[in-house]
Amino acid sequence: MDDADWDRRYAATELLWSAGPNRFLVGELEGLPPGRMLDLACGEGRNTLWLAEQGWQATGVDFSAVAVERARSIAAERSLAAVFEQADVLAYEPPAAAFDLVIVFYLQLPAAERARALGAAARALAPGGTLLVVGHDLINRTIGSGGPKDPAVLFTPADVVGDACAGLTVEKAERVGRPVETAAGRRWAIDALVRARRPVEA
């Protein structure tokens, strides 16, 4: 899908995704002190906004103009200082070593493009900074619920480690289950989750 497709998808509903933060974001960042953070492919900004509420200096980037304007509107309604930028993450180059936290959630791209985006995310980490990547795992296509079915845009924890974690300390790289409520009852989606940290320079 291109930016126009996503604009139409966001414009067709009041809020495309849940208003609350992703469950893995909350769990994986528990105890992490606020600092500067970047959310790549932020959509309507639910994770960026939640982190801003927790005291983070929050920046979100997405290529959908509709999603970015919606995120800005919600930030204004909540009197949050979060910053939202419209940009294609494949062309966007965040400042190097500038962020204490970079998150990338459900950015489903072909392998070469994914590696380019995640490489930029890793380069944006300051010493001691944390990278958190979550997305639809490859095996979700066959044994999980929901998500895209094209294997070209699915990935594994090992793929993320290979794409982005050179020079980082990998703290977690695993498959995780996520409950999904369907008309047939509760099902489980399988996501890939990677948390890594840039070592503090001596």
> What is the global morphology?
globular
Give the mean pLDDT: 91
Residue share in β-strands:
25-35%
Could you give me the name of the CATH homologous superfamily? Vaccinia Virus protein VP39
CATH class: Alpha Beta
Global structural class: alpha/beta
Separation, N- and C-terminal Cα atoms:
44 Å
Please count the beta strands (DSSP E, at least 2 residues each). 7
Number of helical regions: 7
By CATH, the topology is Rossmann fold
Radius of gyration in whole Å, from Cα? Answer: 16 Å
How would you write the strand order of the largest sheet?
3-2-1-4-5-7-6
As residue ranges, the low-confidence spans are none
- Provide the succession of SSEs: HHEHEHEEHEHHEE
What level of helicity do the residues show? 25-40%
Largest sheet: 7 strands, mixed
Features:
202 residues; alpha/beta; Rossmann fold; 7 helices; 30% helix
How is this structure best described in words?
The chain has 202 residues and is α/β, with parallel strands linked by helices. The protein has one domain (3-8, 34-197): Rossmann fold (3-Layer(aba) Sandwich). The protein has seven helices and seven strands, in the order H-H-E-H-E-H-E-E-H-E-H-H-E-E.
Brief synopsis:
This protein is 30% helix and 30% strand. By secondary structure, the protein is of the alpha/beta class. It has one domain: Rossmann fold.
Secondary structure blueprint with pairings:
Blueprint: H1 3-11, H2 23-28, E1 36-40, H3 46-53, E2 57-62, H4 65-77, E3 83-86, E4 99-105, H5 111-123, E5 125-136, H6 140-143, H7 157-164, E6 169-182, E7 185-197
Helix pairs in contact: 5-7
